[in-house]
Amino acid sequence: FVHEGTKRDDDFVDGEYVDREVYAVLREEWSG
């Protein structure tokens, strides 16, 4: 997996905004 970025204050959970980390994998790298 490759970290593509951070979406700051993307979700509202338990009364506060939290960041969301975005990861990706290329089809060629996926062995599943």
What does this structure look like?
The structure is a single chain. The chain is mainly β and 32 residues long. It has one domain. Helices cover 0% and strands 66% of the residues. The chain contains no helices and 2 strands. The chain has a two-stranded antiparallel ribbon with strand order 1-2. A hairpin with a 2-residue loop joins strand 1 and strand 2. The model has no long low-confidence stretch (mean pLDDT 94).
Layout of strands and helices, then pairs:
Elements: E1 2-13, E2 16-24
Antiparallel strand pairs: 1-2
> Strand order across the biggest sheet?
1-2
The H-and-E topology, N to C, reads as EE
β-strand amount? over 45%
Helix segment count? Answer: 0
Structural class: mainly beta
Query: What is the mean pLDDT?
Result: 94
Instruction: Report the major sheet.
Output: 2 strands, antiparallel
Please report the distance between the alpha carbons of the first and last residues: 13 Å
In total, how many beta strands?
A: 2
Q: What level of helicity do the residues show?
A: under 10%
Shape: elongated
